[in-house]
Design a protein that fits this description.
single chain; 172 residues; alpha+beta; 5-stranded antiparallel sheet; 3-stranded mixed sheet; elongated
């Protein structure tokens, strides 16, 4: 997708997405055989459920039909969320990932997998899991120390409420 088309699409679609209480995260136009697919990725502080995605999809479709920004050829519109293993690019992405496990590719080289505890304007405070029975430690990373960061899927993690419930049962 040309930068010009990308910019025109963002200028056209971002106000509609924002009016639905969502952030426009990404726009991509891909060719799939003879068809083109316009993929729009949205998110918010509280997530985006299927109803909100359907509402924004209808609004975007209507707006695109009014304009010629996609040209005359046929295309499919796909609206979705970043997914479970989203890449963290913006400050707001890190804020939304507090208490999540993240794989960091460090600017100095190497990887680090840690849980985000807090986020401020300069970087993140992390909990690095202990290895071989050792306790977890905390570490601070500035945003300049991070090349890439991606949320990791956790299948066996108990959330804080589960831990609190278990502790209360043990005490009773």
């Amino acid at each position: 997708m040309s930068t010009t088309q990308s910019e025109r699409l963002r200028e056209l679609l971002e106000p509609l997405v924002s009016s639905q209480g969502l952030d426009l995260e990404e726009i991509a136009v891909d060719s799939v055989g003879r068809k083109r697919v316009l993929r729009v990725v949205v998110d918010s502080e509280t997530g985006a459920d299927l109803d909100r995605i359907a509402d924004v999809s209808r609004a975007l479709s209507a707006k695109l039909d009014e304009t010629n920004v996609m040209g005359e050829g046929a295309y499919d519109l796909e609206v979705g969320t970043p997914g479970a293993e989203r890449e963290l690019k913006e400050h707001r992405h890190y804020v939304r990932a507090v208490d999540r496990l993240v794989r960091f590719q460090l600017a100095e080289g190497g990887d680090l997998v840690a849980r985000i505890l807090t986020v401020d304007d300069e970087g993140v405070e992390l909990e690095v899991p202990g290895v071989k029975g050792r306790k977890a430690t905390t570490r601070r990373l500035g945003f300049g120390d991070i090349d890439k960061a991606r949320v990791q899927v956790e299948f066996n993690r108990k959330d804080k409420q589960d831990e609190k419930d278990m502790k209360e049962e043990e005490e009773a």
